[in-house]
Amino acid sequence: MNQENLSADPKPKYHLSLRAKLALAPLVALVPILLLVTGLFWGQPFLWAIWAAALVALVGGMVIIEWVTRPLHRVSQRAKALAGARLAPGILGTSPPWDIALSSALDEIERSLVEIQTLNRVTQFAVSEYDLETILARIAQEAVALLRADAGIIGLWDPERQVFHDVAAANLPIAFPGREWTASESFASQVAKSGRVIYLDDYSRYPQRIEELDSYEFRATLGAALMVRGESRGALTVLTRDRGRRFTPKDGQLLATFANQAATALEKARIHRISMARLEELSKAQNELARKSRQLQKALSTVVRVQEHERSRIAADVHDGVVQLMVGSLLELQAAMAHFGGASHTVVKKYERARELIQEAVAELRRMIFDLRPLVLETAGLVPAIETLTRHFADMAGFSPSLIVVGNPCRLSADAEVAAYRIVQELLSNVIKHAEASSVDVTVRFGSANVELIVADDGKGFHTAHKASLQEGKGVGLIGIRERALSVGGQVLVSSVPGQGTEVTIVLPKGEGSDEFREREKGKAMSLTEETAGGEG
Q1: How many Cβ atoms sit within 10 Å of the Cβ of residue 432?
Q2: Do 235 and 266 contact (CB within 8 A), yes or no?
Q3: Which residues contact 436 (CB under 8 A, 6 or more apart)?
Q4: Torsion sign (Cα): 271, 277, 280, 285
Q5: Phi, psi at residue 506, to the nearest 5°?
Q6: What pLDDT is attached to residue 398?
């Protein structure tokens, strides 16, 4: 990066200050005077020596003056370069004196600093504010103040309808709400349509002026278009009453900068509107999704309740019907054998086989009844019911799973207990059918508001990307487990690696029928009773 050296020439080892230089100049100028006085006093008019000394003093004085003014001249030139000043030439086309040049350049720097501060202030306000009219009104006020104008108007241009309408005004008590102008009806609309900066020397003589503004006697007028992606979207106009005032090209550049700020605010407002509209659409979509999720959860809960009701009905029908018939058949068969005591060996053998088959059928039916309607879940709770499941698992798998209970066991809501029981039942069934495991760990962790179930095995595992289709056509599977958990507001997390086993974590809320819920409701009721009693007392 190129950097310009703003410092003066390197300092010599020995140098005089500016004050010393200024003091040295008159001393040199006094030399010929002193020589002249000395010659007259002695009565020896060495005129040639006096004139020679005077000439030397004159040249020396000019050298000293140049020596003194050289750094000031360099400072003046540097100040003009930094400020971009265009100073008027002096007499005979020469440059103005260094003090005037330096003063003018410093004034130009000060004006530039004020412009930068104003633009920075407008930028910060436009960034922090979101109301478009407030931003545009502030921009119009700052532009009027910085350009030393008397009033300003800022408005928007509709390129499709070719009309202009005011949005905000500065130092103008008059307003035109809802009024629109075409390109030929106002100066601002002409500026907006042209997309350029337009200068006007006398607004009072402008044919398309707004008549309501005639009483203000505006003269010089300057307008700049609000350009957004190469298209005009409005105009910023400033007006002055000073009859001798004329806006310069630099004023036009400055007003165009304000117009660019306003155009940026327009684009920001457009993006903000789009963002807010999309956020509103997203919020509506989220609300709709939440409503659909609640409906789905309610539907799943209803389906699960219907399933459990049907299972209980089928279990009762099997118990009261088929099982009783099977037991009755066994009793009848035993009575028949007792009546015919002298039966042959073949008949006895057939009888024993028939009795064994009937007993096995009754045992199988009772197991099915337990699976359909686990009475221990209704009477004792979740942990005893899971213990019964692990015993049944050991009978079928040939090894006993470990059961770990963390926290204080408590009763859950009826729906949560049934869901937890069915999920553990399905997971243990999947281990027997598909996992090829040699050990299974079942963990039940009771929290303050949730219960966490973890079933982990050391089986063959699977790719979790294919878990949805793992049990396809083979029972409820993981999809059914997720549906059961969702029906009571729970969550399911599956972690599995081929050859390293599977771990399924289920988190279920305890529900409104849990012990904690009943204790809370009981506490609320007691508090309400105490408050009522205290109020009556």
Answers
A1: 14
A2: no
A3: 459, 460
A4: negative
A5: -125, 130
A6: 85
Q: Are residues 384 and 464 in the same domain?
A: yes
* Per-residue pLDDT reduced to its tens digit, 46-66: 555 655 666 666 666 666 666
164/194 Cα distance (integer angstroms):
12
Inform me whether the pLDDT recorded for 240 exceeds 90.
Answer: yes
pTM of full prediction above 0.85: no
> Residue 402 corresponds to which amino acid?
S
- CA angle, residues 466, 471, 472, in degrees to nearest 5: 90
Residues in the chain: 537
Residue linked to tokens 């009771």: 446
Q: Is 133 exposed, middle or buried (0-12, 13-18, 19+ CB in 10 A)?
A: exposed
Biggest CA-to-CA distance, the chain: 188
pLDDT tens profile 369-407 = 777 777 788 888 889 999 988 888 888 888 889 999 998
Residue 187 is assigned to a structural domain of this protein: yes
Decide if 167 contacts 255 (C-beta within 8 A). no
Strands 197-200 and 440-446: unpaired
Domain that holds residue 458: 380-519
CB atoms within 10 A of CB 517: 17
Q: How many domains does the chain have?
A: 3
CATH code at position 218: 3.30.450.40
Residue 90 has pLDDT above 60, yes or no: no
Lowest mean pLDDT among 35-39, 359-363, 469-473: 469-473
CA dist 97 and 91 (Å) reads: 10
Q: What is the mean pLDDT of the chain?
A: 77
Please name the amino acid found at residue 284. Answer: K
| Tokens representing residue 524 in the block | 């609320």
399 and 510 inside one domain: yes
8 Å CB contact between 199 and 179: no
Query: So what's the pLDDT on residue 272?
Result: 86
Q: What amino acid is encoded at 145 in this protein?
A: A
Q: In what order do the strands lie in the sheet with 502-509?
A: 402-406, 440-446, 450-457, 502-509, 491-496
Is the confidence at residue 526, as pLDDT, over 70? no
Q: Which two tokens stand for residue 346?
A: 């073949």
Euclidean distance between CA atoms 128 and 172, whole angstroms = 26
Instruction: Report the pLDDT value the prediction gives residue 226, as an integer from 0 to 100.
Output: 93
